[in-house]
Design brief:
Blueprint: E1 6-9, H1 11-15, H2 24-35, E2 39-42, H3 52-57, E3 64-66, E4 71-74, E5 79-83, H4 88-100, E6 104-108, E7 112-115, H5 122-134, E8 141-144, E9 158-162, H6 168-175, E10 182-188, E11 191-196, H7 201-212, E12 219-223, H8 229-234, E13 237-240, H9 246-251, E14 254-255, H10 264-272
Parallel strand pairs: 1-2, 1-12, 7-8, 12-13, 13-14
Antiparallel strand pairs: 3-4, 4-5, 6-7, 6-9, 9-11, 10-11
Helix pairs in contact: 2-10
């Protein structure tokens, strides 16, 4: 029997299906793990406010990780435990460049998502808010960026660039060569997650495990893409979904046969205990 004390899961492409819902088998797997002594939490690129529905549905009591590792948030207490933000000079340069080139640009604080006027990605947040209201959860707060100056007084913990014109990600990647203090990782095929240097899912999981008094060799992480690799490398156990990227599959200890639409998360968790669903 594995000595797993903490399970940390990515949301999109892992715990959630393509309809952005948690399959019942995945919820059952969370409860199975709890019955075997393993606590459960979420580690996502989303802002923490955009994970509250899933915190509620999965009965998460452990602090969650948001913004690709820049935030650790105690949802029960409603407070930030750990936060890393961009320095003002770097933030100003990234914002000016993005607005100048008409990029689909989102900037996250602990409680608000700021978006460029041309952003299409913000529609995802609007759709989440509709779902959250149906589940009795609060909305993501959204504000449009005007000239970018309004961001310079904010603690921006993550920037998201979504492909809009066909060359935006390459353009931003080239620009980022001037900023070694920025961590950049794709979280989906058409987006780049930018976080302050050193802020990633792996470092956040290590911090959380230490906060909870749990050794990393007793942590199991589940993910599906490049920005999950840092936590896969840090944990004692790691699972990648069948729909995962090749680099994430190579980093994981176990790759599921089922994808996220067929409860691959549940398969991976039960595999850790040497069992499977009937």
């Amino acid at each position: 029997m594995p000595d797993i004390k903490l399970i940390v899961s990515d949301l999109d492409g892992t715990l959630l299906d393509s309809g952005k819902r948690i399959p019942q088998k995945n919820l059952d797997a969370v409860r199975f793990a709890a019955a075997h002594g393993a606590r459960f939490t979420i580690c996502t690129g989303r802002p923490v406010s955009m994970a509250q529905v899933f915190v509620k549905l999965a009965d998460v009591s452990v602090p969650i990780i948001g913004c690709n590792g820049s935030l650790v948030y105690d949802a029960a207490a409603g407070r930030v435990l750990k936060s890393e933000s961009f320095d003002r000079e770097t933030l100003a340069a990234l914002t000016e460049f993005s607005l100048k080139h008409g990029l689909d640009y989102l900037a996250y604080t602990a409680d608000t998502v700021y978006h460029s006027a041309v952003s299409r990605r913000i529609e995802v947040f609007k759709a989440y808010n509709t779902y959250a209201a149906q589940q009795g959860c609060g909305p993501v707060v959204m504000e449009q960026i005007h000239d970018g100056q309004e961001l310079l007084q904010k603690d921006i913990v993550k920037i998201l660039i979504t492909e809009l014109h066909g060359q935006d990600l390459r353009l931003m990647s080239d620009f980022l060569q001037e900023f070694p203090q920025v961590t950049c990782a794709p979280s989906m095929a058409d987006v780049l997650d930018l976080t302050p240097a050193g802020a990633c899912k792996g470092s956040a999981v290590v911090w959380l495990a230490d906060y909870l008094g749990i050794a990393m060799d007793a942590v199991c992480v589940c993910g599906d893409t490049t920005n999950d690799i840092s936590m896969m490398k840090a944990a004692g156990y790691s699972v990648c979904m069948a729909n995962g990227t090749d680099d994430a599959k190579q980093a994981a200890g176990y790759v599921t046969k089922a994808d996220n639409n067929a409860a691959g998360f549940a398969e991976g968790i039960l595999h850790m205990w040497g069992t499977e669903w009937d």
